[in-house]
Design goal:
By secondary structure, the protein is an alpha+beta fold. The protein has 5 helices and 3 strands, in the order αβββαααα. It has a single domain, classed as Alpha-Beta Complex (Sufe protein. Chain: A). It is about 45% helix and about 20% strand. Strands 1-2-3 form a 3-stranded antiparallel β-sheet, with helices on one face. The protein starts with a helix and ends in a 7-residue tail after the last helix.
Length: about 130
């Protein structure tokens, strides 16, 4: 892993963006990685089919926390359909590093949580 990407991942892990609870969310979801014990929850506010705000909370390694931070930054303002269409490789592009199979599960926890969250019934405002 290059030192630049290490520094960026550590920064997002130590100072995650969009971390915390979102009071007026209309979607909430949670996921856990039973292999390592990482856990995430997400709150999403959608308006007119767009993700207008998003927050996450959780415990885990630097990769899972950084991945959630990167992912929440990248989906804010996008449509729910665009967010649901994200795949494994999109997360790897956001992180900019190759990961071992165990670390890959950590990185993909944020995507799993986002998809579970958006699958929840909502009261999307118009």
């Amino acid at each position: 892993m290059s030192s630049l990407y290490q520094a960026i991942i550590l920064d997002h892990s130590k100072h995650p963006r969009n971390c915390g609870e979102l009071e007026h969310a209309n979607h909430h979801g949670e996921a856990k990685n039973p292999t390592c014990g990482d856990s995430l929850s997400m709150d999403v506010l959608t308006e007119n089919g767009l993700i207008s705000d998003i927050r996450f909370q959780g415990q885990g390694c630097a990769i899972s926390q950084a991945s959630a931070s990167f992912l929440t930054e990248s989906v804010k303002g996008k449509s729910v359909e665009e967010a649901l269409a994200l795949e494994r490789d999109d997360i790897l592009v956001l992180l900019g590093v190759e990961l071992s199979p165990n670390r890959l599960k950590c990185a993909l926890l944020s995507l799993e949580t986002l998809k579970k969250t958006l699958a929840q019934d909502s009261t999307d405002t118009v």
